[in-house]
Amino acid sequence: MDYLSILLPIAFALTMITVFMTICGYSVLAERKVSSWIQGRVGPNRTRLPLVGHIPILGNILTGLGLFQPAADGLKFLFKEEIIPGHVKVGYYYLAPIIALAPALTTMVVVPFGRYVDPNGVVQPLVLANIDVGILFILAISSLGVYGIVLAGWSSNSKYPFLGAIRSSAQMISYELAMGLALLPVLMWAGDLTLFSVVQSQKSLWLCMWQPLSALIFLVAVFAETNRLPFDMAESETDLVGGFHTEYGAFKFGLFFVAEYAHIIVGSALFVLLFMGGWNFLPGIADPWSDGIVGTVLSVLWFMGKVFAMIFFFIWVRWTLPRFRYDQVMNLGWKILLPLAIGNLIFNTLIIALYDSL
Amino acid sequence: MATTKVLKRKPLTFAEKTFIPQIATGLKTTLGTMFKKSVTLQYPEERPVIPDNYRGVPTLVKDPNGREKCVSCQLCEFVCPPKAIRITPGEIDSEAEPDRAHVEKAPKEFDINMLRCIYCGLCQEVCPEEAIFLQDVFSLSGYSREEMINDKEKLYELGGTLPDKHFKWDKKKSAEEAGNPHH
Question: From the list B23, B31, B40, which residue is nearest A41 (CB)?
């Protein structure tokens, strides 16, 4: 029994990491495919695995969709020559990609991805660690991701990575404020810091419908926090070569790459949980999920579907909008989003105060 | 003197300042292109349609009887702007083609350096015998500089036969057999 209580969480964690990394790999594929469709191209459609790829019709469809491509991408990163430029600070240089990936994997622990009904008939979240300060934990840990970028830029000992790191850290600090302040009204309405209760409070109406401003600010801030276009100040291929990962190659670059997508997935999951009703079916319609195992699986699938839609939205925006100039990013963050978020917070506080005094 | 017209820039509306309608329009455009047919050609399997007047790799052609049309006059070598053509003139084998031998010449060697060629088509234009043509081969590749020099054999292989109606040597032969009415 004692062994089981130790082994089960480990098994769950390993399963979760496996699923999460697979989704990361396939987000990379989705990025490549969606970008190619948007640009009128075909995208990866050549990689074919030996046995599965040669099943008569199915194999061709899978190959055409590029479903074997993530494996090839991963192997490529693994087998490439590990080049370490002579001018880097070796210890920090190795540490940076790990620090970039670790926060994203850590935040995953407190993200609930479904619900089940326990024997007592109480609805419980499906989550690795159901801690009371879920949102605070996510905000605290995910902002550590900037250290990976800063370390990478600094230890590369080269000017473009350094510029990328500076930009990215400034940007992340600016948008974190707006992000936190946009979240506060949501938490005040939910009255709780656990993500589960925020989701349960959206049974009848999704939060993005009656807190659209919060949702918008949070969405923009998530784009900025994940360093995605139109806010990819850290990379800006056109003006900074590759930004913070210019000096990285092979598997270390792969880690940065995966970390970017891990952040996107966690960001999407967070947005879905906070503003799009999590695993709740549709606004105004009661959940059709039954109490049994089928209902649990359906709720997980519905939640995943929403997350995938958000990931698609992230990719879609990336291939639509051009990059902001650095000063525009700062203007937007400090002069527009932050005042808006503060105003929104005050407005909601007043309404809650009025509501409570009535 | 005319005065320069200064255009007034229309101030942005509030909606435009928020970027949101523009972003929505952009997203709509990209979503539209997502469902259009892609324009990519799956290159090695699918080849582009080469227009008839395409100026590809210069090649040497033979006449319908399989004779070399080139008489190694070296005009193309002379006109070639980047000096890509090098011709070594030679005699025609008198045993293989007794009526042509000692009348015309033929190139012993005919090299076109494709690393120098600029595909201008002047060789084709200048050739009095219609022996050199820029045809539809468009992709050349090789592992060494030597490989990129097309020799005579390669040029004839690329060129093939020109279905012209001149039949220069047939006419000469029939005229010889029928006698010349002017003499």
Answer: B40
Report the residue of chain B nearest A318, measured CA to CA.
B27
Which residues of chain A lie closer than 8 angstroms to B26, CB-CB?
A: 320-321
* pLDDT exceeds 80 at position A306: yes
pLDDT tens digits along A279-294: 877 777 777 777 778 8
C-beta of residue A251 within 8 angstroms of C-beta of residue A284: no
Whether the model clears a pTM of 0.90, i.e. scores above it, the answer is no
Q: What is the dihedral of CA A216, A219, A221, A225, to 10 degrees?
A: 180
Nearest CB among A41, A317, A319 relative to B38 is that of A41
Amino acid A99 reads I
Assess if residue A199 is contained within a domain: yes
pLDDT for A33-54, tens place per residue? 999 999 988 888 888 888 877 8
Quote the minimal CA–CA distance from A115 to chain B in Å.
33
With respect to residue A306, please indicate whether it lies within any of the assigned structural domains: yes
Average pLDDT, chain A: 84
Structure tokens given for A195: 């993500």
In whole angstroms, give the CA distance from residue A154 to residue A162: 6
Confirm or reject contact between B103 and chain A (CB < 8 A). no
Q: Which residue has the higher pLDDT, A91 or A209?
A: A91
A47 in a structural domain: no
The answer to whether the beta carbons of residues A44 and A32 sit under 8 Å apart is yes
Nearest CB to B38; choose among A42, A317, A319: A42
Q: Provide CATH code, domain B58-172.
A: 3.30.70.3270
The percent of residues above 90 in pLDDT, for chain B, comes to 34
Residue-level pLDDT at A211: 83
Strands B132-134 and B106-113 come out as unpaired
Domain that holds residue A249: 83-357
CB atoms < 10 A from the CB of A112, how many?
24
Task: Name the domain count of chain A.
Answer: 1
Token pair of A139, please? 């905000």
pLDDT over threshold 90, residue B111: yes
In a domain, A12, yes or no: no
pLDDT at A61 over 90: no
* Sequential DSSP letters for B59-105: EE-B-TTS-B------HHHHH-TT--EEEEEEPPPTTT-TTTTTTS-
